[in-house]
TrEMBL record:
It is found in: Endoplasmic reticulum membrane. Keywords: Disulfide bond, Endoplasmic reticulum, Membrane, Signal-anchor, Transmembrane, Transmembrane helix. This is FAM69C. The lineage of its organism: Eukaryota, Metazoa, Chordata, Craniata, Vertebrata. It comes from Labeo rohita (Indian major carp). Belongs to the DIPK family. Residues 17-175 form the FAM69 N-terminal domain. It is a single-pass type II membrane protein. It holds the Pfam family PIP49_N.
Length: 448
């Protein structure tokens, strides 16, 4: 009996011991996973957390390198010496991209750079060749034509454009270089090369002289460039553009010198009309169609004259590059969705088609116009004949397939334009009948 009891206790002890060991191992594994999770979160989130202290440190490094002659730009003197650039706040950090709000000589601007440090950008090979030539017995200067040639190649690679097409930047710079007839310092060339490696800078710089629907570049210092501060859209609720933010925009108002006040009711169709104008412009007025693959309110802004402006163009591509992006391997149509730009999958070849199936107009109607003019938001006004007709036109526009007849697409766009113009005329005819639509009044469809 005692022998049986001792055996039972020994067996019980082994089981308890095994459970204890298993419990310790599980606790250790859970702790290890938890600590590694914290490290991962810290490295991927908090290390790139947007703070004022870090932003000021970054700008201070830019100024230190400017004082050392490493980088330069027309913004540097005011930023680093004269104190005419006043840092305001950090806007966001994302995947290395730094974006900050500042004031330059009293004008609100946004400072941007794709990478934090100037040294993170690829060095210009011409400068290394220049060093080698200088070490061999005399420094060889870079001609203006060298600068234009390499700038042109970088733009071609960045935007997917051919150098012989409608590419104004090298032509514009080439004319200025010819007029100046001077060589450029290492700091100037290195700064230019760092800027050209940023697709957004290149895109904005190429287009700002061709269209008023992109944000304007105002200056640069090293790898940071300043763009105009505009009233950006908001993704939350239906607060799209704020009237209060419009006061920060340096753009002139179309109502300057007039007694007419900006009304929210008047702004809605005018902003929508500007969206239509932008779509028409991007699709027809360049050598290649321009595709917007990330359409959402926060990627657009408005000036005081209510012009819609594309302010985040990291996902904007001309036709040649768009074709390269879309033409990928696939097994079904879902594999051919590149954000808001989609194509069809050819299952016989397991290859996505290079032609985009939808369009900028269709996505804007679906993701921006349809929420703006929905019956739920319009309330009692939703039953008005003009509003009903507009809602139907927006719905038809949102359902247009990119492969459909171009004539139908053009007809839908023209119908939208006519209805929006009619809304503006209707509002203009009702002005002076009361004070219910003054500037601070909130529109039921668009909370400005």
């Amino acid at each position: 009996m005692w022998r049986s009891l001792r055996g039972a206790l020994r067996c019980l002890g082994v089981k308890v011991c095994r459970r204890s060991v298993l419990l310790v191992v599980l606790l250790w594994l859970a702790s290890w996973l938890f600590l590694n999770g914290l490290v991962f979160v810290h490295r991927n989130m908090f290390s790139d957390f947007c703070t004022d202290d870090k932003s000021k440190e970054i700008l201070q490094r830019v100024c230190d390198e400017y004082q050392q002659g490493v980088l330069t730009g027309d913004l540097c003197e005011d930023l680093c010496v004269a104190g005419r650039v006043e840092y305001k706040r950090c806007l966001y950090y994302e995947n290395g991209k730094k974006v900050m709000a500042a004031s330059w000589r009293g004008v609100p601007v946004v400072l941007k750079s794709k990478l934090e440090n100037f040294s993170s950008y690829e060095a210009l090979a011409l400068l290394e060749y220049q060093d080698a030539a200088g070490g061999a017995g005399g420094e060889e200067e870079l001609s203006p034509l060298d600068v234009v040639f390499y700038a042109t190649l970088e733009i071609k690679n960045s935007l997917g454009l051919e150098t012989g097409t409608n590419l104004t930047l090298p032509r514009l710079w080439g004319q200025k270089l010819k007029e100046n007839e001077r060589t450029y310092s290492r700091a100037e060339l290195a700064s230019l090369w760092a800027l050209l490696q940023q697709e957004e800078y290149t895109f904005l710089r190429v287009l700002q002289d061709l269209t008023h629907h992109v944000a304007k570049i105002l200056g640069s210092c090293g790898h940071f460039y300043a763009v105009e501060y505009l009233a950006a859209g908001h993704a939350w609720d239906q607060h799209i553009f704020s009237l209060e933010e419009l006061t920060l925009s340096p753009s002139p108002s179309p109502w300057s010198g007039q007694e007419k006040m900006i009304t929210a009711k008047d702004m809605v169709p005018r902003v929508a009309l500007s969206f239509l104008e932008m779509v028409e412009h991007f699709e027809n007025d360049f050598s290649h169609r321009l595709h917007l693959c990330d359409i959402k309110p926060e990627n657009f802004a408005i000036r005081k004259d209510l012009t819609v402006v594309a302010i985040d163009v990291d996902m904007a591509f001309f036709e040649p590059k768009m074709r390269d992006i879309l033409e990928q391997n696939c097994t079904n149509d879902n594999d051919c969705n590149f954000f808001d730009c989609i194509s069809n999958c050819d299952t016989t070849k397991n290859r996505c088609g290079p032609k985009r199936r939808n369009s900028n107009l269709q996505v804007i109607c679906e993701k921006i116009f349809r929420p703006w003019f929905s019956p739920t938001l319009l309330g009692a006004k939703a039953g008005l004949p003009l509003q009903v007709e507009l809602q139907r036109a927006v719905q038809e526009c949102a359902e247009i397939d990119g492969g459909e007849d171009a004539r139908r697409t053009r007809a839908v766009r023209e119908q939208l334009q006519d209805l929006l113009v009619e809304l503006i005329r209707e509002d203009t005819g009702n002005q002076g009948e009361g004070q219910e639509h003054k500037m601070r009044r909130v529109h039921t469809a668009l909370n400005f």
